[in-house]
Amino acid sequence: MTSPLPSSQSAVSVLDLAPVVPVVVVADVADAVPLARALVAGGLPAIEVTLRTPAGLAAIRAIAAEVTDAVVGAGTVITPGQVADCGAAGARFLVSPGWTDALLAAMQASGVPFLPGVATASEVVTLLERGVREMKFFPAQAAGGTAYLKSLAGPLPQARFCPTGGIGPANAPDYLALPNVGCVGGTWMLPEDAIAAKDWTRIERLAREAAGLRRPLSAGGTSR
Questions:
Q1: Which end of the chain is more exposed for a tag (fewer CB within 10 A), N or C?
Q2: Is 123 tagged catalytic?
Q3: Within the chain, where are the H helices?
Q4: Measured distance CA(109)–CA(68) in Å, rounded
Q5: Set 66, 136, 192, 204: catalytic member
Q6: pTM (two decimals)
């Protein structure tokens, strides 16, 4: 997956922007910009806006236009048509829960960085054959969790993952401690009642706590 960042930061992947990528479901487009600003202020610049609601595409467009410090991406991308629509809306990365040959071809042709979803070793190997090294592991907990990802690290160390699904503040550090995990995806910093109340201060605070879930220091004293 190539970088969604300006050339001065071109070596940085979405997986390395922050330890957590918020998975945002927007019901009201009017919430998109203040919500994104709260997440960025809390230290979570990579924001995955899902296409699960009719407001999703418009929310991506609004964030891309108005929140310049955000790296907004599109989630739940499942068709080639959505790939084109999201790129036109300003999405800077794409995330799919799974993939087909047609969807993968569209994402590769788009020029937009992408994380195709995988849940098995065979899917990982197939993507590696096609030059894809960064993937979404979904549904993470249901598909085997940290034990499964740890077992993949030995034979397939070139694959890196953003696990999503069933991850919260209690188990996120366990995922982030794995050598083949760059970040995790989650929704816990986006409680429905806070969004309904437009309590952006609370969301910023929760985002800041999530941003603090950094990878533990290695023996050499550095972190990834």
A1: C
A2: no
A3: 32-41, 56-66, 80-89, 101-110, 121-129, 145-153, 172-176, 192-196, 200-211
A4: 25
A5: 136
A6: 0.91
